[in-house]
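Before a colleague's protein record goes any further, I have to sign it off. What it holds is a sequence and that sequence's fold in C-alpha cell form. My question to you is simply how this chain folds and whether the C-alpha cells agree. Thanks in advance; the entry in question is below:
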Amino acid sequence: MAEDEILRQSRQYFIDKLSDKALEIRPLISRIVTFDQDLNETTDLMAIIMGDASPITFSATIGAGRASGVRIKLREDEFTGKTYIEAAKSYLERIGHAVSMEELLDAFKKGGSPVGGRAPKKTLYISLARSKEFAPIPGQVGFIGLRKWYPNLKAGAEKKGTDKKHKK
C-alpha cells in the first residue's frame, strides 16, 4: 500500500510538471492548429512532442471558434461569478492568441456570464480596452489580446503621455 501511495504521489508530481509546461506550449499548439485549419492539413502534434516515439496521435479539435479556429470545451459555469476581466483573461490564456469580440461574447454566454445591455460588444470591448491587461490589436477592428503577448505594443495612455512630455 505504501509503495502505491509513493507511486501515486510521484505520478501526480509529474502530471503537475506537465501541466505547467503545457501552459507554456499551448499558444504554440494553438497557432499550429490555426495554420493547419487554414491549410486544410493536420499535424501530428503528439509525434512532434514525443519525438516520433509515440503511437498516440494528438488530435487537435478544429472549427468551433469563429476567429481562432480552435475549440475549447467550456463548462456552463466556467465564468459564473467572475468579472469580465477575469473571465476574458482566463479564456484568452486558454486560447493562446487574440480573438474577436464576437468570439469572446459567445464564450462568455456559453460559460455562464452573458454580457447584457444595448451594445454588449461595445460594453465588453471598452471594459477590456481600459484594463492594462488587454491590448486592442492594431488594424484588426474588434480584436483583443493579452498585453503580455505584445511587449513592444505601448498602451494608448503611455503614448499620449510621452507625446505631451516631448512637446514641452
